Hints:
Structural class: mainly beta
Number of helices: 3
Number of strands: 29
Largest sheet: 6 strands, mixed
Strand content: over 45%
Oligomer: single chain
Strand order of the largest sheet: 2-11-9-4-7-6
Distance between the termini: 52 Å
Mean pLDDT: 88
Helix content: under 10%
Low-confidence stretches: 1-37
CATH topology of the largest domain: Immunoglobulin-like
Amino acid sequence: MILPEKEKVDNKARxxxxxxxxxVLMIFTVDCLDHVWATAxxxxxxxxxxxxxxxxxxVNVTISDVIDLYxxxxxxxxxxxxxxxxxxxxxLFLRNSGESFFTFQFDNAExxxxxxxxxxxxVFGVTGNGVLATVTFYVKAAGESVLDLYYVTLLDSSYPxxxxxxxxxxxxxxxxxxxxxVSITNICVLPTIVLPGQIxxxxxxxxxxxxxxxxxxxxxxxxxxxxxxxxVSLNEGSSTSLxxxxxxxxxxxxxxxxSCYASIVLGEVDIADNNRTSSDTVTxxxxxxxxxxxxxxxxKIVVGQGFCMFINVTVKNFxxxxxxxxxxxxxxxxxxxxxxxxxxxxxxxxxxxFWNTSSFLKSKYLIRSYAxxxxxxxxxxxxxxxxxxVTVAKRGDITSVTPNVPDGKVDMRDLAAxxxxxxxxxxxxxxxxxxxxxxxTLGLPDNVINMRDVSWVAINFGK
Length: 463
């Protein structure tokens, strides 16, 4: 509808008059009264934040239970010695009703921020809950600070004189981790290949990142078994190195994970860094000829008949001699891949292969890999590794009432199983490898769920 020219001018004049009035109210605003009948609430969320020096964190200034909000203003104070504001962005709450005007100013030297926002034009205000603004801080020094939210003004859409909306305000709080905080900051394991009875040195660094002296215990674990513990006392802000020794006598051949744990001190909140695992495993050998399959992993558990899937096999030489041997991978009793492997003592390898199901009937297949025994090998109990069952199904039949179990027909469940993670790649929150049916190379998955995968469900839909 085209408005008469006079009405256009009137609307512009109303918007301009409101902005002038709003500016005047901002100058003379007072804090919202904390009356018992005030239903609206403006608060800092989350109410408490923990972040280290050198990190950034964000808080939202949120509103709840408001009716007909047309414009708002708030002020925020913080510890200028510890925090700097990096950015201030408008939330989407007012934009639910129309176009808005947003402005802010901050002073990091004083630790002060003022932000304002109003709708534009002859529109109703917004009712409900939402985010008014997001403030991002940089932590430049350890400490703590109240995020003091004050002088909050809320205005409704009344014309020609906007009315103040009563509200309650709730500020926030930030600190560097917690008042009490200990951690494991480093772990080094040497040597990483040993024979039974030899000693493994575990050198770990522990720190006190809190504000009080602390006394605590540090324990070293081999897999889940504790092997040694030491007590340590540290002043605030200090660290020390501890040497532990693992006598491998009595442990059998295998790969062992080494970790260190600092006991939780009274009042400690951040306990995520109390435990650290070494990036290097320790391989315990046997004085003999000995090879093993240590892992078999298939990329999916449902594959379209005639299409391919990936299988990764890990093998290890636990003996004290260099070895060359064959590793054969099977689907039930049918060999689908054979690899010749040469490994030095203590060395491992990962074999990447793919299985083309073109010559296989629709059925369930047990995927396993077998390392052929080498000369004079006595222990062959670990020469076989098993993944489990993989179903060769009709192309597009990837699920049923039971997730990821095909039911012999391509229907809406299968379409949904591909459509829901559409666009996902490995590591994505909705990634489903079974829905990665094919790629540019026909029958070979390409690590993305796209229209090629959807098309196979569509082609076979109803079959």
